[in-house]
Design a protein that fits this description.
The chain is built from three helices and ten strands. A hairpin with a 2-residue loop joins strand 5 and strand 6. It has a single domain, classed as Beta-clip-like (Beta Complex), CATH 2.170.270.10. The strands form four sheets. The protein has a three-stranded antiparallel sheet with strand order 3-9-8, with no helix packed on it. It is an alpha+beta fold and 182 residues long. Bound molecules: zinc ion. Zinc ion binds next to loops.
């Protein structure tokens, strides 16, 4: 349980700086990070709505607004180097998906925590700037993913999203999935 030793920002793992993709500030690996390591523990003020592109959803009706040091600078990538593991109190921990080299920009996919973009969300229909070859083009929320992609990424998402990617619901009756996302 080494992850519980520190609350919030893990300063031993990341530093802040300007994103090369024009996203403003973001985090960079301060050192080589091993696959599976906890890179960041998100925390912050609890809010009821997705009021800002900085907020991170932690349950159907709860979002947290992290500070600069607890996840507020996290950016999206369609091919992220970190994923979400739900931690204490449903707060997301950011885990290295692969080995990350010192100096690499830290990112995750926003669909790993956000079920659906709410009105007023900055990410709604926003063009993705992650610059990877397989970029989705826009930043998707979880409800916008194909049933196949939901299932494929089940181990990378917040616990509360996992119920939306059961094989029975997604494969056998995609229309039900669609109906619940609108
Ligand atoms: Zn992208």
């Amino acid at each position: 349980m080494t992850n519980d030793k520190k609350e919030g920002f893990n300063r031993s793992m990341v530093i802040t700086g300007k994103s090369k993709n024009g996203y403003g500030f973001t985090y960079f690996a301060k050192r080589n990070i091993k696959k599976g390591a906890c890179v960041l523990k998100c925390s912050g003020k609890l809010i009821e709505h997705q009021t800002s592109h900085l907020s991170i959803q932690i349950s159907p009706n709860q979002h947290i607004l992290p500070s600069k040091w607890t996840g507020g600078y996290l950016n999206h990538s369609c091919v992220p180097n970190c994923y979400i593991r739900t931690g204490t109190g449903d707060l997301p921990n950011l885990i290295a998906m692969r080995n990350i080299k010192r100096g690499e920009e830290i990112n995750y996919a926003f669909w790993m925590t956000e079920y659906k973009w709410q009105n007023g969300s900055a990410e709604k229909n926003i063009r993705c700037k992650c610059s990877v070859v397989s970029c989705d083009g826009i930043i998707h929320s979880f409800s916008q993913l194909s049933p196949r992609k939901k299932l494929k990424n089940k181990r990378y998402i917040s616990d509360y999203l996992k119920k939306f990617c059961s094989p029975v619901t997604d494969v056998a009756s995609p229309s039900r999935t669609k109906a619940s996302s609108r």
